[in-house]
Structure prediction request, 432 residues.
Amino acid sequence: MKSSKTTTKNKRKIWQMPWGFPESITIVCGIVVVGSMLQLLLKDGFNFYLLAAPVNYYIGGGLILTCIGLSLLKKNRFIKWFSGIPFSISLIMVFLLLSLIMGLTPQLTGEQTNTGTIFSQLGFDQMTHSWAFVLIYLTMLLALGVLIAQRLQNFKWKDYTFHAYHIGIWLVLFSAGLGHADMERYIMHVPEGETEWRVYDASKNVKELPIAIQLNDFDMETYPPQLTIIDRHSGAPQPKAKPDFYSIDSENSSGMLNGWQLKLEKYIHQAIRNSDSTYREMPMLGATPAARISMYNPSTGVKHSGWVCGGNQAQLYMTLPLTEHLSVVMSQAEPKRFRSDVILYTPNGTPKKAIIEVNKPAQVSNWMVYQYGYDNQAGQLSKYSSMELVYDPWKTAVYIGFGLIALGTIAMIWNGKQIKHKYTNDKQPHEI
Prediction:
């Protein structure tokens, strides 16, 4: 009985130092509540563009000094808890929860407006700008920064895994957050054979950039088009409920198209008009796919043959009439690959030649140049190419951070294997 009373008396009460998971979870949830209240009161999310240089440099420097200063108070119970495991795990759990909500909630762009729902009012449809997310992010930076500074004060080479992994995470969070305001994104339309350096900013004003693009040539490859039967009056593919399409694969192929037997007699991927009703192959600008086909209706015995062509700005389209109401048409060829042969100029650099394709950007200085688009109506005859230019002076720091994370992860896997190997060897029976 006496032992039971002693155990009850020695049991730690909540909010009694040292704090553990109950206090940590409560405080982290409180941060989210404060952020949500700020979101509702201000009726707007946090504006990261207020942190544009040089403001982000001052804030970043102050953040680093704060982490170093707090790390010197390592004997303080509050600092021990602030950089300890219970608070860190609680922060990570809530951060992951907010990230999960962000992944499951359609995120609005800057031009879209609040939908009026409670999720929208709390900023969850623009999560990275919501006050709750920003406060959790800032607290994570401080807590992780204090922990790293404490460990660096007693630096040991055997702790390289910890340092690489945690410094990498902190560097990615630090650079991605504070560097967001310095990122610039523009769309530039460059006429073929000309040089362009002007874009429109968010306010639709002309802005001159410190990078210029000369477009030498725009080239496009297309997939073979499709054939379908349409209503000659409405233009709707048939049958209406579930339109039937025939994909052109090779010459002398055949198939069924809406009840008609189709035979592909000849296909030319780059063709021009040879006469009013025929085509010939001619690889040149303005050429278009064309096919000679025969159509046979087994139920009526009707047969037709002739050329069909989707046409473009240089070539007229051609259809094959089947009945008074139906015709065979060719769809426009879908782009398979399009690329721009360019020269990139910067004020202090030498001109850089590059071939820019989708998912194959070019980099010059802190600018990344992506293939964005072209004149969709003109297709292969497009007289310009659209480039997306992204300026991010913090990307090097982010890459370094990811490199450290990868190094730390590999080191953890390697150390784990070494420990397992040593443990296995220790368990082997000794030889007599």
In short: The first strand starts at residue 184 and ends at 191. Residues 266 and 292 are 5 Å apart (CA to CA).
